[in-house]
Amino acid sequence: MSPAGCPHVGGWKADGWRQNLRLIYRCFVWSGSAETRTRKAKSCVCHACGAHLSRLHSCLSCVFFACFAKKHIHEHARSKRHHLAVDLLYGGIYCFLCQDYVYDKEMEQIAKEEQKKAWKMQGVGEKFSSWEPSKREVELLRHNPKRRRITTNCTIGLRGLINLGNTCFMNCIVQALTHTPLLRDFFLSDRHKCEMASSSCLVCEMSQLFQEFYSGRRSPHVPFRLLHLVWTHARHLAGYEQQDAHEFLIAALDVLHRHCRDDDGKRTSNPNHCTCIIDQIFTGGLQSDVTCQVCHGVSTTIDPFWDISLDLPGSSTPFWPLSPGGEVSVLNGEGHGGGATTLTDCLRRFTRPEHLGSSAKIKCSGCHSYQESTKQLTMKKLPVVACFHLKRFEHSAKLRRKISTYVSFPLELDMTPFMASSKEKRMNGQHQQSADAFCSDNRYSLFAVVNHQGTLESGHYTTFIRQHKDQWFKCDDAVITKASLKEVLDSEGYLLFYHKQLLEYE
């Protein structure tokens, strides 16, 4: 595409050109409503050969559709001297005099506005949703394979990422972030107001990345600008060596958080008082209760978190004995068949009381002296997206290895047993006996799983992502393939992303 613009566009513009261009984009490029999709499926045929399958362009000077690959649109331009046409697949403007796709600021703005309207109509901004075509559309689309993706199996948002040299650690996290519903809604609605140079703002680059993912293009995207910004703002990740996907996730969230603005238009570095989109989605509150063993006084602190790192059996850190079955496991749809460790087991271990011992005495505010104590972690505030990091890579002075222990994780997860409020109820003798007693507000649905294959020294990252309500796809850099739910739940699991089923609004 020519970045300098086209001198022939100005000669084409006349009274009413904006409305005419909007109609082309609305009805034949980014068609969003049932009416315009029907019109598109019915009308978009080459007027020269009647083909649907060839790459069609629409003349900007008259009502004429024709193939680009078969040169029918070229013949029309030459005979009629109509030198501008719109690519009906990607929306680009082609000039037959320049012999290239050209850029015009006004026309680009119109195209973007109509694209956003179409996305809104298609339900891109709704949680795990898809829109369904009418019966009339189904009949028309059945005869046009090029448009069959406009169904409940719509694959918009699925796009591979080119590996730029051991960058699978970045690609797998990008896939998880671009399929995070609320983050997707934020970026596709252009709500980011940048105060930095766009060339150095990671939020601007992520916004552009979302536009690329949801543009409808299927060719793999090359995330070279994202990689450059990561190297610039997180220098410990620079270079072509393989990096840790979890480390990249935290670094990316940190930079995005620093480059975002909160609702008051002020940039903040305090996660406790930030309302930027990153903290709205990913930040939870972890409560730490330290109890004196002498006076039983409790000291409580609450710290923000973006993810929860969980120890696994097989690590050098002792993993407490597991009890088969149990109320919590049943609630979360997990069993202990064959003694398999579950995600619930890991969370129960994470939130169990821990005796700190004589070597870690604290000064008790009640006793006014150093005493032994116990410490217990619980969830004070749950994030919209809960990310669980299974600690598979063990690094110590004597040991560097990968822990491949299989951990069973559920499709739906109830976090109520691990809440600070549940602990208080148990201490007050209010025991919950059944799943019905648990609050549905704390239920989550799995939507992305990052896996690592190989060893600590040589490995590869892939991601399973959830499309709509019940479809799963495996993202392996540039290659995306359909996956079954069994493949997802049987995978080893390194990072597990869960989305809250019910959202709270203030």
Automatic annotation (TrEMBL):
Record field: catalytic activity: Thiol-dependent hydrolysis of ester, thioester, amide, peptide and isopeptide bonds formed by the C-terminal Gly of ubiquitin (a 76-residue protein attached to proteins as an intracellular targeting signal)
SUPFAM superfamilies: Cysteine proteinases, RING/U-box
Keyword Zinc: yes
Coiled coil: none
Top-level taxon of the source organism: Eukaryota
UniProt domain UBP-type: residue ranges: 4-121
Protein keywords: Hydrolase, Metal-binding, Nucleus, Protease, Thiol protease, Transcription, Transcription regulation, Ubl conjugation pathway, Zinc, Zinc-finger
Cellular localisation: Nucleus
UniProt EC number: 3.4.19.12
Cellular component terms per the entry's GO annotation: nucleus
USP domain mapped to chain residues: 159-501
Keyword Metal-binding included in the entry's annotation: yes
A single BP term in Gene Ontology: protein deubiquitination
Single GO MF descriptor: cysteine-type deubiquitinase activity
Similarity section: Belongs to the peptidase C19 family. UBP8 subfamily.
Protein name listed in UniProt: Ubiquitin carboxyl-terminal hydrolase
Organism of derivation: Oryzias melastigma
